[in-house]
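User: tokens in, sequence out, please.
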């Protein structure tokens, strides 16, 4: 009976396709480079049949790889990506190349430094309760130790520890200044620290693993100390500085939100200070709102949450009056700044509506929205409120006015209003009107989804065959469906969409998409063959989708489309394009195998190899098409 394979033996069964399934083609390509450049050092086998090595990249990383239950690798690494990275791929390839060359492998000891580093890395990912970092046993040991010391000895001990830990020394100075009444000095220093830390934008280079994220933890701790000492107003003053500086820094940073998260982590302290401050309830709301309105990066989410908490109705009443006055005094400008000013005004009016609602002044909300709709085009907000109040007739009137006002300048708003009317008609089960609206939307912007939506509505009134024919005729000849004889749907009562210029018809790419949707491969090819030659290669038609749609009906055409697409990618002479070409060649290979034309396909691949022999990366992609083993000879079970 053959000996059962160990997990270590399973590495030898890996194919290039399996490696890409595990890590993805990009990571595999980078891992190949690392292995080829000799970046894998001190490769060893672990007790659990895994692989461990140092891999030299931006830094030297410890990397371990094991085989999982699905027969694919699983890696952990000390690099920023941590799991299933290019370093893990490099380790696997290096191991298999050494197996192929009959090179021996050392066993990693239990005390291997790399195993300890990786184990510590795992622990670092576990959530830590900062309040419980010192165990009760340790606290008791410290307590017993300190009880035996004199005052002079304690002072000497604290001085010694403060010398070793500057952050502790600073904390002691802060507490001294607080207890001695020198709060102003501490506030001045904290303001300077906020300005200094906010001067340098954060940045991250994820490709090379470098970067800088400002550390606001020290600021947060000092603010907490100041707050706990009873100086909430001073914390709030610093909070204003923190909000302005932090938002500016986030705006200037080039990362994926790390800088914003650092600033945002300070905001709960500011909220606590707001609660404890000497401001009255209305001023507290005003303070939080000003910060929230300044913020466009979700830095002040804690303050936005504060504004959704319960506060005295009288405070909301005062805030609502203040916001209404601000809206009255705010003037909209015309020109380049018009959009940003409208955005600012809309945010302000949203909060005014919130304040009116909390102050039980709901009767003022819709009149406010009516006035604002005419000024900033916020018709959708108004219509949604009217629909919620079941004032459908008024809602329809504003929909029509809103469409007239926005269809040219803000077409997205007009589209939203038409969609709201469609929802109203759907609630009323007025299917002819719903279908008419959907048909007009299809003419405005043909798409598969618009076609499908129209089909669902028209089918309810048994008008789909005629509607379908009219929509397709529109795409072919440009004739509006509602102008055709026998059009079965009523007038929607909305603005009639303008049709495209006659020279734009037939709209071939849309006709192809609908033929694919309806699974009519002969029509797919009919229209595909009528695409202008210059449009081949990604000018609105997905050739891969075309080939997939016709592969059973016309396998030779599907293979030809995939081959043509792959050859255009190969001509770009880029490794990334080679990987993309491989996807289409694999699809063509499956069809050729199904059609029993393997010999013909092999000749085609051989011609590619001969013609592009110097393109090493392409040769690797072509090798992977056959799902070959990474090494050419298997290893015996150990």
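Assistant: Sequence out:
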């Amino acid at each position: 009976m053959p000996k059962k394979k160990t997990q270590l033996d399973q590495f030898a069964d890996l194919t290039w396709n399996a490696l890409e399934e595990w890590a993805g083609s990009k990571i595999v390509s980078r891992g190949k480079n690392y292995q080829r450049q000799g970046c894998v050092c001190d490769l060893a086998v672990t007790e659990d049949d895994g692989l461990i090595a140092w891999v030299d990249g931006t830094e030297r990383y410890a990397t371990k790889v094991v085989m999982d239950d699905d027969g694919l690798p699983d890696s952990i690494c000390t690099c920023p990506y941590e799991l299933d990275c290019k370093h893990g791929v490099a380790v696997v390839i290096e191991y298999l190349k050494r197996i192929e060359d009959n090179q021996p492998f050392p066993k990693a000891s239990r005390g291997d430094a790399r195993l300890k580093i990786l184990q510590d890395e795992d622990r670092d990912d576990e959530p830590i309760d900062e309040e419980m970092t010192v165990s009760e046993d340790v606290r008791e040991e410290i307590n017993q130790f300190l009880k035996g010391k004199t005052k002079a000895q304690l002072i000497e001990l604290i001085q010694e520890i403060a010398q070793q830990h500057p952050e502790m020394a600073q904390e002691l100075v802060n507490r001294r200044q607080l207890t001695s009444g020198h709060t102003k000095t501490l506030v001045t220093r904290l303001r300077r620290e906020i300005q200094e830390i906010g001067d340098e934008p954060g940045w991250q280079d994820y490709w090379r693993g470098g970067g800088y994220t400002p550390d606001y933890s020290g600021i947060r701790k000092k603010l907490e100390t100041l707050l706990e000492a009873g100086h909430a107003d001073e914390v709030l003053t610093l909070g204003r500085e923190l909000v302005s500086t932090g938002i500016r820094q986030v705006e200037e940073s080039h990362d994926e939100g790390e800088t914003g998260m650092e600033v945002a982590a300070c905001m709960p302290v500011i909220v606590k200070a707001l609660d404890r401050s000497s401001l009255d309830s209305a001023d507290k709301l005003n303070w939080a709102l000003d910060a929230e309105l300044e913020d466009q990066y979700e830095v002040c989410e804690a303050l936005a949450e504060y504004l959704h908490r319960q506060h005295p109705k009288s405070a909301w009443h005062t805030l609502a009056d203040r916001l209404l006055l601000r809206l009255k005094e705010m003037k909209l400008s015309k020109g380049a700044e018009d959009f940003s000013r409208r955005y600012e005004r809309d945010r302000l009016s949203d909060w005014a509506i919130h304040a009116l609602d909390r102050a039980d002044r709901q009767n003022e909300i819709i009149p406010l929205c009516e006035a604002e709709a005419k000024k900033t085009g916020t018709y959708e907000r108004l219509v949604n409120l009217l629909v919620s109040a079941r004032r459908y007739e008024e809602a329809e009137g504003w929909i029509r006015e809103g469409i007239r006002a926005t269809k040219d300048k803000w077409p997205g708003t007009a589209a939203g209003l038409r969609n709201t009317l469609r929802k109203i008609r759907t609630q009323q089960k007025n299917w002819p009107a719903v279908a008419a609206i959907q048909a007009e939307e299809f003419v405005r912007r043909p798409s598969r989804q618009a076609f499908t939506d129209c089909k669902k509505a028209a089918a309810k009134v048994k008008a789909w065959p005629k509607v379908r024919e009219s929509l397709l005729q529109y795409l072919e000849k440009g004739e509006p469906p509602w102008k055709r004889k026998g059009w079965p749907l009523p007038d929607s009562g909305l603005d009639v969409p303008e049709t495209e210029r006659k020279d734009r018809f037939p709209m071939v790419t849309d006709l192809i998409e609908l033929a694919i949707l309806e699974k009519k491969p002969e029509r797919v090819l009919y229209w595909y063959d009528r695409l202008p030659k210059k449009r081949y290669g990604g000018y609105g038609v997905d050739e891969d989708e075309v080939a997939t749609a016709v592969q059973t009906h016309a396998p030779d055409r599907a293979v030809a489309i995939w081959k043509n697409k792959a050859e255009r990618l190969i001509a770009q002479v880029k490794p990334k394009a080679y990987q993309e070409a491989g996807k289409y060649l694999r699809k063509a290979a499956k069809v050729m195998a199904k059609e029993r034309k393997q010999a013909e396909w092999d000749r085609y691949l051989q011609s590619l190899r001969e013609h592009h022999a110097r393109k090493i990366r392409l040769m690797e992609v072509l090798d992977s098409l056959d799902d070959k083993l990474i090494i050419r000879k298997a290893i015996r079970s150990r």
